[in-house]
From TrEMBL:
This is Thioredoxin family protein. Residues 47-131 form the Thioredoxin-like fold domain. It holds the Pfam family Thioredoxin_2. It comes from Roseovarius ramblicola. Coiled coil: none annotated. The lineage of its organism: Bacteria, Pseudomonadati, Pseudomonadota, Alphaproteobacteria, Rhodobacterales. Residues 1-19 form the signal peptide. Keywords: Signal. InterPro entries: SoxW, Thioredoxin-like_fold, Thioredoxin-like_sf.
Length: 192
């Protein structure tokens, strides 16, 4: 069964095409990341104008898990295309000094914002709702957070779960149950 799931995931998600390049700050850069002034309220408005979801990806120089995501997971066509089509991605440097304006109006460095949001590990991905209640920080408003590196199937399922707003449905299917159901569906499709 495990072998079948592994084979199925490889076929569904395809092979990575190319890894992201490193920028001068030592962080991976992709074509789906946006260069912004890091005023999260403006970034959210721009994401909404493009009918996309705002995604904050917090990374650091030398992070082996960030490298793994950028070399093995994000380049897969199904994932890269899904991000490009559905998400407005802003990169935050865990140790950076660039100013970030949080949703609550506080302006602080990237590293201070990461501490404020309680982020200790990289990569960490915060997914924001279409509207953030006044006075909330990014961490308080986030509808989901991906803490660390995950396999391609889990990553794509989380992106889909967030994009389809499944967190807001009045059901007992949280992300873990959704992900388990998607794994079973993919396995059943392979058996047919």
């Amino acid at each position: 069964m495990t072998r079948l799931l592994g084979l199925m995931a490889a076929l569904v998600l395809a092979v990575p095409v190319a890894a992201a390049e490193l920028g001068d700050d030592g962080l991976h850069k992709t074509d789906w990341m946006r260069e912004t002034f890091k005023d999260l309220r403006d970034d959210l408005a721009e994401a909404e104008a493009e009918d996309k979801r705002l995604m904050l990806i917090v990374e650091q120089r030398g992070c082996i898990y960030c490298t793994r995501m950028h070399e093995e997971v994000f380049p897969r066509p199904a994932i890269a295309d899904y991000i490009r089509e559905n998400f407005f991605v802003v990169q935050i440097n865990l140790h950076g000094d660039t100013e970030v304006t949080d949703f609550d109006g506080e302006s602080l460095s990237e590293k201070a914002a990461a501490r404020k949001w309680g982020l200790l590990f990289t990569p960490s991905i915060l997914f924001l709702p279409e509207e953030v209640p006044e006075g909330q920080s990014a961490a308080e408003a986030a509808v989901a957070m991906m803490p660390g590196a995950f396999e391609a199937g889990t990553t794509l399922d989380l992106l889909t779960w967030v994009n389809e707003k499944r967190y807001a449905l009045d059901t007992d299917e949280d992300f873990q149950r959704y992900h388990a159901r998607k794994i079973a569906e993919r396995a059943a499709e392979k058996q047919d």
